[in-house]
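QA checklist item 7 of 12: single-chain prediction sanity check.
[x] sequence parsed
[x] length recorded as 97
[x] structure emitted
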Amino acid sequence: MRNEVDSGVEHGEVLLRFADAAVGRAPDLAEAREAVNAAMGAHGVIDSAAVIANFQRMVRIADGCGIPLDATTEKASEPWRDTLGVNSYRSRSNTFG
């Protein structure tokens, strides 16, 4: 179980649970979605699902374009980039520098 932090966002707990379940393809996704529906209604489910999808899209576009890593992320990810073969991705040639 993760540490709970009050984000100050109204319905933050149910939104975070829904986002975590959606991104992680968790088995409790339907329950998390229903919790958003109970707290915020159908429009809240639609809006929050759209935000989750948008962030997933942006990350995929960034990865596909080869957007360079900042120095901190590059150093922190070095051990597993080689292991996963990330440095061999064709999109890496799009990365400047």
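[x] summary fact logged: The CA atoms of residues 39 and 62 lie 33 Å apart.
[ ] second reviewer sign-off
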